[in-house]
Design a protein that fits this description.
Blueprint lengths: L3 E6 L4 H10 L5 E8 L10 E5 L8 H7 L7 E4 L15 H29 L2 E6 L13 H21 L4 E8 L5 H6 L4 H8 L10 H13 L8 E4 L6
Helix pairs in contact: 1-7, 3-4
Length: about 240
């Protein structure tokens, strides 16, 4: 492809911000569409911001209206949510529904909208977000989150099986323990808890957004043959 029209969801996440900064240096990126639930400071004329909250009954018709007449070459997923009281025995219907809605159902809805145009242009690169713990039983208090992220892994296999013949390559990444708002704000971990957790990682340190973004960028913009794969980025945490 001579030019790229890129769609990113979850644009205000720590990882997404690093990724966006990196891809804006790519001269082939002509348009960048960002989905976010809150304001985003636009610093480049190629950026288009779409406000959409996946936590409030995701409206597929509204999403279709936001990106009408767009043919995307890339979709990269960063959005997601986790709760600290997502325990199997004490699970509430609200937490279960909202966690699956945001982490899985919304991704499916986005892909349903953008895949037909990727098929028609015979080109697409999709990178989805799972988690390293999903393949190891997850955390005791993150049942719904782990279940949703397992769904992402299945989606990657399904899309690769049925869309690779249209030159649409789908992969995912599974970050481990990364220094980001996901752990410090969403899961409310203190700095001492972060450092204690880092001791169990084989590399002996907490991962950085850059560690994740480098792999995602490769899968999205430097990859022409890998599909159906999930890349674990955890510093040897789950070996």
């Amino acid at each position: 492809m001579d030019s790229y029209n890129v769609l990113i969801s979850g644009a205000n996440s720590d990882l997404a911000k690093v990724f966006i900064e990196k891809i804006l240096k790519n001269p082939k990126v002509k348009n960048l569409h960002l989905i976010t639930h809150s304001g985003y400071k636009v610093s480049d004329k190629r950026i288009n911001v779409h406000l959409l909250d996946f936590s409030t009954n995701f409206d597929l018709d509204k999403f279709q209206g936001l990106i009408s007449n767009q043919t995307f070459t890339h979709y990269i997923q960063f959005h997601g949510i986790a709760y600290t009281d997502d325990n199997f025995q004490n699970l509430s219907g609200k937490i279960f529904k909202e966690t699956l809605e945001i982490n899985l159902v919304s991704v499916l809805a986005i892909l349903k909208v953008i895949l037909p145009s990727m098929e028609s242009q015979n080109y697409g690169r999709i990178v989805l977000m799972s988690t390293a713990s999903a393949s190891h039983g997850g955390g005791k208090n993150s049942f719904s989150y782990g279940l949703a992220k397992h769904g992402i892994l299945y989606m990657v296999k399904y899309l690769s099986k049925y869309y690779t013949n249209k030159n649409i390559l789908t992969n995912s990444v599974s970050p481990g323990f990364i220094r980001s708002k996901f752990h410090t704000q969403m899961l409310n971990k203190t700095e001492s808890e972060m450092e204690e957790r880092a001791k169990s990682i084989k590399l002996g340190r907490i991962g950085t957004p850059e560690d994740v973004v480098k792999v995602m960028y490769n899968l999205a913009f430097e990859n022409d043959f890998v599909t159906g794969e999930n890349i674990k980025i955890d510093g040897g945490d789950f070996i």
